[in-house]
Amino acid sequence: MNRFAWKGHIFQTNDDMKIEIFENSWVLCEDGICKGIFKELPEEWKNAELTDFGDKIIIPGFCDLHVHAPQYTYRGTGMDLELLDWLQKYAFPEEASYADLEYAEKAYSIFVTDLRRSATTRASIFASLHVPATELLMEKLEASGLKTYVGKVNMDRNSPDILRETAESSAADTDRWISETENRFENTKPIITPRFIPSCTDELMTSLGEIQKKHKTAVQSHVSENPSEIKWVSELCPFSDFYGDAYDHFGLFGGENCKTIMAHCVYSDEREQKLMKERGVWIAHCPQSNMNVASGIAPVREFINNGLKVGLGSDVAGGSSLSIFRAMTDAIMSSKLRWRLVDPSLHQLSVDEVFHMATRGGGSFFGKVGAFEEGFEMDAVVIDDSALYTPKKISMHDRFERLCYLYKDAKIVSKCVSGRKIDLG
Ligand code: GUN
Ligand code: FE
Asked: How far is CA 15 from CA 262, 353, 380, 415, in A?
């Protein structure tokens, strides 16, 4: 039995999306599972491995529900175009480079190192269409100790020759890759990843639906991100009533044994939201990307009111930052613009709500993850925010809010995933 306990100021959210604060308290972990938060260390835990982090902050690890690993190389550049042109000019040519394993080795080492050192403990990741480079990324993630889903991307239309499969080869590669990797790793799992409808023919989508049924693999994709994209999908799939319905047509939009993340949902209307609710689809809200590629402002308050499952995504390199702290504050700021410019009846998001999305919201995709409740997997991040100090007396809640906005001046000093300590070097 492996037991340890960490002491500090513990922050988490409850099911009502409110922050709970436990000052100078212990969080207990036994064999990777959280045993709850205690003001006093229980007598029988005195012999466990004990670490008192003093005045530091302990939070559940963040979940990044949507990020493109091969795009990490050009993060922070190429912000002059909107989605469809941006894909052609920046994303596709860069992703084509991952046919070269030497390049993939360098690029994915940097991506995994930065993710490992961040406050993120879990992620759902797009790779490129190349199976060898995708497996290399999976190996690196497994070695990091993080828990992730990784998708070999499927695309057989509307991309340059250097980044396009045939429906047949894409499906065959995906089936083989899932068979070879679904049990190979402890912490790294394959996820079926049709890039988006404009990249995948009906023939390929039909095959992916069959592969999904056979392996019961999770699914991730993009939906209703950009107006031109949505119009194009309605032309490409005249049988669909709305964008999400096109995925559903092929059995790739949630439901039993088909755990699904859909990124963006900026323009998801009532029908699409209803179907997401029925099918239990997780929404990956990616505010920075939505601003960078000028997609729009997602109606997150509506999602919450409608009881949809919402997590946050960095969506690098649509988003420039891998930080989920940044995604949290961007979500607040973009919600204020929606409130001001689009719908004054739906109030802006609070720091409590975005913290919930970053932890419990996205965490539920991975199981009992995202809080220090008894029985949850122990994903924790310890943060030294002493560099943010102010002589002003502030509440613990304000201290946490400042950390979200000023995270770059704070330091992550310890991190564990399912109780396993992560090397931050
Ligand atoms: N839609 C299809 N591919 C992509 C991508 O790489 N990034 C974003 N933001 N949207 C997409
Ligand atoms: Fe994306």
From this structure: 22, 10, 18, 24
Distance in Å, CA 225 to ligand 2 centroid = 9
Query: Does domain 3-60+371-421 match CATH 1.20.1090.10?
Result: no
What are the backbone angles phi and psi of residue 343, rounded to the nearest 5°?
A: -145, 90
The per-residue pLDDT for range 57-104, each reduced to its tens digit, is 999 999 999 999 999 999 999 999 999 999 999 999 999 999 999 999
Q: Which amino acid is at 78?
A: G
- Provide the pLDDT for residue 104: 98
Ligand 1 mean position, distance from CA 87 (Å): 7
Whole-number average pLDDT of the chain:
98
Cβ atoms of 230 and 195 closer than 8 Å: no
Q: Angle between the 202-215 and 167-181 helix axes, to the nearest 10 degrees?
A: 20
Q: Which ligand is nearest to the Cα of residue 314, counting in written order? A: 2
Cα-to-centroid distance, 263 and ligand 1 (Å): 9
Instruction: State both tokens at 75.
Output: 């993060």
Q: Which atom of ligand 1 approaches the CA of 198 most closely?
A: 2
Residue extents of the structural domains in the chain: 3-60+371-421, 62-363
How many angstroms separate the CA atoms of 57 and 28, rounded?
Answer: 15
Query: Best of 79, 83, 197, 230 to mutate for ligand 1, by most ligand atoms within 8 A of CB?
Result: 83
> Beta 49-60 vs 411-417: how paired, if at all?
unpaired
Atom of ligand 1 nearest to the CA of 289: 9
Which residues have C-beta within 8 Å of that of residue 201, sequence separation ≥ 6? 156, 157, 167
CATH number of the structural domain 62-363: 3.20.20.140
